[in-house]
Specification:
It is a single-pass membrane protein. InterPro entries: Haem_export_protD_CcmD. Required for the export of heme to the periplasm for the biogenesis of c-type cytochromes. The chain is mostly helical. It contains one helix and no strands.
Length: about 45
């Protein structure tokens, strides 16, 4: 049984989840910065 399909699949799954992690972290950072700006302007 060749190992290549499993290796390719693992790289694909890792790539998808790493992309999801980066995007979700970026969006969370943007929300936190917006919240901090709102607090700064409020006081």
């Amino acid at each position: 049984m060749p190992h290549a399909p499993f290796i390719i699949a693992s790289f694909a799954v890792t790539g998808v989840f790493m992309t999801w992690l980066i995007v979700s972290s970026y969006l969370s950072m943007r929300r936190a910065e917006a919240s901090a700006d709102a607090l700064r302007e409020q006081s």
